[in-house]
Amino acid sequence: MIEIFTTGGTIDKVYFDAKSNFQIGESPIQDLLIEANLTIDVKVTEVMRKDSLDMTDEDRAQIRRAIEASGSTQVVITHGTDTMVQTGRALKGIAGKTLVLTGAMQPARFRATDALFNVASALTAAQTLPPGVYIAMNGQIFDPQNTIKNVEENRFELRK
């Protein structure tokens, strides 16, 4: 069974007006999984509802503890994209588990979103990659140790 840990970020954002006021809402992951017509066994666990820019080292430690306590060896973590790389680095060294972080540049509730594709990529990666920590974004799999978010291009890429 794959366990999906939700932590907040753009994938979970709910916007209220044209001025882009938002809050992190209940994760739409269950709806995405139904929409994707999955035939795999998945458990969803909420860890927190935070914008990744507000995440602290203690939040990352909380995510790590949740993963370490999980009986699953295949884990997907939904996370805000701004500090996903830092969290990925903080999860390094969890033995015997394949951890894949993913998120979205546009909220999952938007019609035009990359959320479903990124979550599906992360679920596939969790099933096929060896133990370690990965990021699944933009149709690619990245190692957080040598990855950056290119804010200007709105994508992840290898650090140069």
Blueprint (SSEs and pairs):
Elements: E1 2-8, E2 13-15, E3 22-24, H1 29-35, E4 42-50, H2 57-69, E5 74-78, H3 84-90, E6 98-102, H4 115-128, E7 132-137, E8 140-142, E9 147-150, E10 155-158
Parallel strand pairs: 1-4, 1-5, 5-6, 6-7
Antiparallel strand pairs: 2-3, 7-8, 9-10
The CATH topology comes to Rossmann fold
List the secondary-structure elements in sequence, H or E: EEEHEHEHEHEEEE
Give the domain tally. Answer: 1
Query: How many strands appear in the DSSP assignment?
Result: 10
The major sheet is characterized as: 6 strands, mixed
Characterization of this structure:
The chain has 160 residues and is of the alpha/beta class. The protein has one domain: 3-Layer(aba) Sandwich (Rossmann fold), CATH 3.40.50.1170. 26% of the residues lie in helices and 31% in strands. The chain has helices spanning 29-35, 57-69, 84-90, 115-128; strands at residues 2-8, 13-15, 22-24, 42-50, 74-78, 98-102, 132-137, 140-142, 147-150, 155-158. It has a six-stranded mixed beta sheet, sandwiched between helices. The protein starts with a strand and ends with a strand. 38% of the residues are buried.
